Amino acid sequence: MFISQRNLQDFMGFKIAQMSPEERIAYIRWNALAALAEIHEALDETSWKPWATDQFINTDLLINELRDAFQHMMNMIFAASPHSNLEQLALFFENSLYTKISKNMKRHESGYTVIGTKCPGCRRSYDDNIPCVPAHDEHEAVCLSPSAA
């Protein structure tokens, strides 16, 4: 999937590996907006409105919209790591997904709540084991994560 999507981007003229950081940030931004638009379109393939009386899921159309959103998300992954070998990038993403699923299962088993589990400074979950990002200006909250010490 990653190879085919990258080939499509190359075919369309988006040479991600040749983009400057500013160009990649813009590319990420418009792909994020496009992915959100596709997710909204996916939602419209269901009867999500609680005030409506009909109940439906247009399965094929819903999956098509989610496919479109996934294509934009892959583009963002490419922009995040433009010089990566695509097979290694796909494997990294797959392993990251399995790790997150395992973490979510543990959170569910332990009665995970948001209160007390996230750093008030950077807002990351303490169990993500990701170093906190320091505040960008003096008016932002100071990171209070144990990993910041």
| General shape | globular
Q: What is the number of strand segments?
A: 0
Our estimate of the beta-strand percent is: under 5%
How many helices does DSSP assign?
4
Largest sheet: none
Coarse structural class: mainly alpha
For this entry, give a set of tags:
149 residues; mainly alpha; 2 domains; 0% strand; globular
Descriptive account of the structure:
- The protein has 2 domains: 2-110, no CATH class; 113-149, no CATH class.
- It is built from 4 helices and no strands.
- Helices cover 53% and strands 0% of the residues.
- It is mostly helical.
- It is globular, with a radius of gyration of 19 Å.
- The longest helix is centred in the middle third of the chain and has 24 residues, at 86-109.
- The mean pLDDT is 88.
Architecture blueprint of SSEs:
Layout (H helix, E strand, L loop, with lengths): L1 H10 L9 H23 L15 H22 L5 H24 L40
Helix pairs in contact: 1-3, 2-3
